[in-house]
Amino acid sequence: MSEVAAVLPLRTLFVPGIPAPKGSTKALYIKKLGRAVVTHDNKRTRPWEQAILAELLALHPQIIEGPVALRMIFRLPRPRGHFGKNGLLPSAPRSHLVRPDVDKLARLALDALTGVVYRDDAQVTEIAASKRYADDTHPGGVRIEWEPA
């Protein structure tokens, strides 16, 4: 184990809520302003990124200068159609196979960690991201773990 790893152990963060994907951005030229304004195609993007940042800042993490390893587990709510009058239907899928895409969920989290956990997301050399359904034991949100790689 290197000295850096001894100083900076594995850190964990849980952010409750409904994870939002980064999505696409659009640049619109506003004639009155005389400049372009960048907007997101998902109105939940900015609030979710701010929720991650708020939880992160409460931890007061030390910025990692070298390579970083990340693990993210996103928990998303099940649609009502997965439930019957007696609870979860046997036909309900176990895996989350619909939108949002796991890479877009991870991209938003990577951007939220920039400047707080590491200086640039180019420092991330290892990443594991998964998306699952929330349940009674695992509420909706994201669990993020990071450490020097």
Note the main attributes of this structure.
single chain; 149 residues; alpha+beta; 60s Ribosomal Protein L30, Chain: A; two-stranded antiparallel ribbon
List the helices and strands and how they pair.
Layout: H1 3-7, E1 11-16, E2 25-30, E3 35-40, H2 45-59, E4 68-76, E5 83-84, E6 87-88, H3 102-113, E7 124-133, E8 141-148
Parallel strand pairs: 4-7
Antiparallel strand pairs: 1-8, 2-3, 4-8, 5-6
CATH superfamily: Holliday junction resolvase RusA
The class by helix and strand makeup works out as alpha+beta
User: What count of domains describes the coordinates?
Assistant: 1
What do the pLDDT scores average to? 90
The topology string of helices and strands comes to HEEEHEEEHEE
- Tell me the CATH topology: 60s Ribosomal Protein L30, Chain: A
Tell me the number of helical segments per DSSP (H or I, 4 or more residues long). 3
How many β-strands, per DSSP?
Answer: 8
**Low-confidence regions:** 1-6
Please give the order of strands in the largest beta sheet: 1-8-4-7
Beta-strand fraction estimate: 25-35%
Name of the CATH architecture:
2-Layer Sandwich
Q: Helix content range of the residues, please?
A: 10-25%
Overview of the structural elements:
This protein is of the alpha+beta class and 149 residues long. The protein has one domain (3-148): Holliday junction resolvase RusA (60s Ribosomal Protein L30, Chain: A), CATH 3.30.1330. 21% of the residues lie in helices and 33% in strands. The protein is built from 3 helices and 8 strands. The chain has helices at residues 3-7, 45-59, 102-113, and strands at residues 11-16, 25-30, 35-40, 68-76, 83-84, 87-88, 124-133, 141-148. A 4-stranded mixed sheet has the order 1-8-4-7, covered by helices on one side. The protein has a two-stranded antiparallel sheet with strand order 2-3. A two-stranded antiparallel ribbon has the order 5-6. Strand 2 (25-30) and strand 3 form a beta hairpin. Helix 2 crosses helix 3 (102-113). The longest helix has 15 residues, at 45-59. The radius of gyration is 18 Å and the shape is globular. It starts with a helix and ends with a strand.
